[in-house]
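As described in the Methods, two query proteins were run sequentially through the folding procedure within a single session, without resetting any intermediate state between them. The first query and its resulting structure tokens are shown here.
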Amino acid sequence: MVTWRSASLAAAAAAVLAVTATGCGQDKSSGYSSGNGQPVGNASTAQQPGDNAYGSSGGYGQAGGAESSAKQAGQLTVTDSKELGKVVTDNAGFTLYRFDKDTASPPKSNCEGDCAKAWPAVPADGVTAAAGTDPSALGSVTRADGTKQLTIGGWPMYRYAKDTSPGDTNGQNVGGTWHAAAPDGKKAAAAAAAPAAAMPGLSVRKDPKLGDVIVDARGMTVYRFKKDSAWPMKSACTGACLEKWPVVAPVDKADTKGIALKGFVTFNRPDGVKQQSITCWPVYTFSGDTKPGDTNGQGVGGTWYAVSPEGKLIGAPK
């Protein structure tokens, strides 16, 4: 989107634009720190898998009330979530969370009062490290009420009131500050997918309706405006028009694939914006295209059309 810097500039640009580029009829002008945390060893009092760690309600914060919120976590486990990756759970399968407003070095909980009712602290006593994890990552922090809260990697651990069944992760990203805990106390996160290969600055996509069309580095369809001209190179798209039809920024010839390079020059617009041209025609994208593959600009007003690899209008009446 282009922003006009002054009223006089907008007035000057409102006229048909003459540009400067040779060859298109233009002039040549152009690690965990424990802090106050205390290590928690493998406890001999860990509950056995299958015990209800949240009282009779099967969750906490309902029938279990305050009693259920103080239940020991027992034998920790690590579950694999497609969305979140590796997540720490207690012996009953309930997710453990961490709070961005806490600190890990030194460990400190900033969830008290009503916050602690919704996010009860996990007691530090009676905890056994999950199989395959580092027991030394477990620790404790003394809360304002004097109780000891479990920490992992220095981060205080909590449960969430609205998790009522094992495996629930209703607390994930609540308020943008609560996150399921990974085995090292960091935020749980699925492994990043391999990045897609970078697209050239301009290339060709086969559209099911239009055939071969030129697209930019984002995969967005490239268009031409019938009211423009190539010789001399001029643009009739100014002002509000450019808000709907942003210019394609200059692209290096080496960063193209499958398109015509004759007349592939930079269009130096009078407003100071540099625009790519193909076969000397200025090219644009469309603000109404929201994702790669969209062709919502095709045929708009009978004047805007997608561009072929040869730089021609696709589907325009002759």
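Immediately afterward, the second query was submitted; its sequence and tokens are:
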Amino acid sequence: MRDNATDRGADHTRGRRHRRWRVSAALGLTAVLAGGGIAALQAAGSPASDAPEPAAVVASHSGRLTPGESREASRIAVDAATRPGTAPARGGEDAKKDTGGGERNAAGGSGAEPLDTRRPPRAKSASSAPDSRAEVQLYDYASDTLITRLVDLRSKKVLDSARQHGVQPPPTLAEAREAVKVVLADRRLGPGMRDSYTSQTGKRLTSPSQLRLQSMSFLGSRAKGVDGARKVSRCGEHRCVQLFVRLPGGKWIDTSRIVIDLSARRAAVIGL
């Protein structure tokens, strides 16, 4: 889920010292968490920031990859880390030489986390023959870097690779589910989420797959002037997300003031 609406709301508040947050009912979670001195409050919009924020650059591409091509491209890109000496970096001052090795995904497993696959841009003068190349974006949790790898589906090789720090594209469903696991493991927040789920559904919450999830990247600059901002100051350098959690029946569990730092595997509540 992209945060275009949030950015538009931020434009109306730019230049103000104090950020305004709208509070909504937490559908059971706030009451549970309040007993421990913590409440999750829904924000009408993220605080504005005068500082420039990292953003993913998305180029126009010709055609789409099939699901099978996307899976294969991701596999090639992830497996490239096991082979030393990948191609030189390209594109931009922040790009570094990609040497691979030791990459980790959101769950802490071997290999970077796949984020997106797409066709690379093609020159107008290029041949009309089918393009066997694919561009893969991954996030390496071991080094907190965004990786872009250009792979060839025919040769199964990486043609080019680059790394960038401080670039945070929208999180995937897999990352959102990892964020739920972090919340459930938190001794302050986990019981509240489980109790809220049970009170609304009559069932136990045992897996993130039971929830309908949307998420957005969170940057520490958005918390400027908000209570608890120091707890999320590394977000942007770290991979951090906010969750929007919907129950099977359509109701919501309010987690919008909970920021999950996936790089550090911890959750923080801000704006109280």
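The helical segments are 4-13, 29-34, 67-79, 173-185, 190-201. We note this only descriptively and draw no conclusion about the first query from it.
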